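User: Reviewer 2 asked us to show a designed sequence for the structure in our supplementary figure. I'm pasting the structure tokens here. Could you produce the per-position amino acids so we can include them in the response letter?
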């Protein structure tokens, strides 16, 4: 029997005056999926994730998280999710330990549990060596790791990540990826937006692509690959289009993405002074 989706939207729309930033999208993310949400700059990714996490009210449409209507059960939903937003929203005048203890208490953890988990997370994220350092003095990468720690301190069932690897070095990225894969193994659901397509391809089992506010593709990587390849063969023929691959070679996520959103249309354009 199919399980009910962990994240579901019906006709999700957000307008800013005359601009329709998100235009009637229907998303379905199954329990335990590592789900990648992709799109060009300005496509509506961050607006969508803000609506899914209750930071921005939709103009119309419905959102269900863990079977709960977000509009009518916002507190119940927010207790069970973790969020690393685009701007991180950290309190700079606290130390890392103080901030994580605050986050844990806000999620309802008792004082002892919050302190224990904060210490474990600081050690895991390699942030424990300067306990008196204020968050405002952290590097960008350190702040990313702290934001991730705050998002998981309560053991969320669903984790929303908006560009979590931006500005993070390779060692820290490896630590974060291992933690995320561990969460998936324990049954959590992760919703990730990122422009780093090779990371998405390595981590995510399913992907949706948004373009100009509309959902243009959704499914497993194999389903998306098969759909694009079928369109390619039915159109210009095998090996045509951007970055054609050798016979038998799988299309990369980058190739799928570019063909889906039409990114190859500028490939023949050049700047005259950069010959």
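Assistant: Here is a per-position design you can include in the supplement:
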């Amino acid at each position: 029997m199919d399980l009910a989706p962990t994240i579901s939207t019906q006709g999700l729309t957000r307008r800013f005056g005359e601009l329709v930033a998100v235009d009637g999208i229907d998303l379905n993310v199954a329990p335990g999926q590592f789900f990648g949400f992709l799109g060009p700059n300005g496509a509506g990714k961050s607006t969508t994730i803000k609506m899914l996490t209750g930071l921005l009210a939709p103009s119309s449409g419905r959102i269900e998280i863990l079977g709960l209507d977000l509009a009518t059960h916002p507190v119940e939903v927010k207790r069970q999710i973790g969020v690393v937003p685009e701007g991180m929203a950290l309190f700079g005048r606290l130390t890392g330990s103080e901030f994580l203890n605050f986050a844990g208490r806000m999620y309802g953890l008792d004082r002892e549990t919050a302190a224990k988990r904060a210490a474990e997370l600081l050690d895991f994220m390699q942030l424990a060596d300067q306990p008196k350092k204020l968050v405002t003095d952290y590097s960008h990468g350190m702040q990313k790791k702290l934001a991730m720690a705050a998002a998981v301190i309560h053991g969320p069932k669903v984790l929303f990540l908006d560009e979590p690897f931006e500005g993070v070095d390779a060692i820290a990225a490896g630590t974060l990826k291992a933690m995320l894969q561990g969460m998936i193994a324990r049954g959590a659901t992760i919703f990730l937006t990122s422009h780093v397509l090779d990371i998405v391809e390595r981590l995510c089992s399913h992907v949706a692509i948004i373009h100009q506010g509309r959902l243009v593709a959704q499914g497993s990587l194999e389903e998306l690959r098969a759909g694009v390849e079928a369109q390619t063969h039915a159109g210009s023929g095998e090996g045509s289009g951007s970055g054609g691959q050798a016979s038998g070679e799988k299309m990369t996520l980058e190739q799928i993405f570019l063909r889906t959103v039409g990114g190859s249309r500028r490939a023949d354009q050049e700047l005259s002074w950069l010959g």
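For the response letter, you might also mention the following. Confidence is low (pLDDT under 50) at residues 239-243. The radius of gyration is 20 Å.
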